[in-house]
């Protein structure tokens, strides 16, 4: 399974140009997808779960906010995409982080790649220009 996933991830294009991976997202579709698929955990206003920085009794972290109080914008867009498509654990394992139990489910079976880009584009659209610019820099660093 891991080998298959690694092969799939290897096929995913890396960001070599200045074009943003989330550019051209359909923001209103993204907003609808967010309400349907993400708001239950990440909050209707992207505020995350209460005490999101404290692990639950099972050791699993709660869902973080996607607004600027959280750390979504600290990550490059490809990681955000992989996290949403393959789930947190698989996305981290593909980047060499083992032994982390993530509460973030995979949406590969329920959302198309376009829906995933739209919902991440919607989340990004709620950030200030400054935060968007900082996240752009993460996405455009070589190897990121
Ligand atoms: C069942 C609850 C649940 C649902 C539904 C859910 N998430 Fe998450 N998500 C989590 C948890 C818990 C984490 C934190 C886990 C971790 O740190 O690996 C997380 C983490 C993330 C992250 C990476 C952390 C970061 O920096 O923001 C992204 C991106 C993300 N979710 C996007 C989404 C999107 C987009 C949707 C809807 C398509 C969604 N999530 C739906 C629970 C959920």
TrEMBL record:
Signal peptide: none
Domain Cytochrome c, first and last residues per copy: 25-127
Keywords: Heme, Iron, Metal-binding
Pfam families (alphabetical): Cytochrom_C
InterPro entries referenced in this protein's UniProt entry, alphabetically: Cyt_c-like_dom, Cytochrome_c-type_DH
Entry superkingdom: Bacteria
Keyword Ribonucleoprotein attributed: no
Entry-linked PANTHER family: BLL4482 PROTEIN, BLL4482 PROTEIN-RELATED
Name listed for the protein in its UniProt record: Cytochrome c
Native species: Maritimibacter dapengensis
């Amino acid at each position: 399974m891991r080998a298959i996933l690694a092969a799939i991830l290897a096929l995913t294009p890396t960001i070599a140009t200045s074009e943003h991976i989330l550019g051209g997202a359909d923001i209103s579709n993204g907003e609808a997808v967010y309400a349907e698929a993400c708001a239950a955990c990440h909050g209707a206003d992207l505020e995350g779960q209460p005490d999101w920085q404290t692990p639950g009794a099972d050791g699993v972290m709660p869902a973080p906010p996607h607004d600027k109080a959280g750390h979504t914008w600290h990550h490059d867009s490809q990681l955000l995409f992989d996290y949403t498509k393959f789930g947190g654990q698989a996305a981290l394992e593909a980047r060499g982080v083992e032994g982390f139990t993530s509460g973030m489910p995979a949406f590969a079976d329920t959302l198309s790649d376009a829906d995933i880009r739209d919902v991440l584009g919607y989340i990004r659209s709620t950030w200030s220009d400054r935060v968007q610019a900082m996240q752009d820099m993460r996405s455009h660093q070589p190897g990121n």
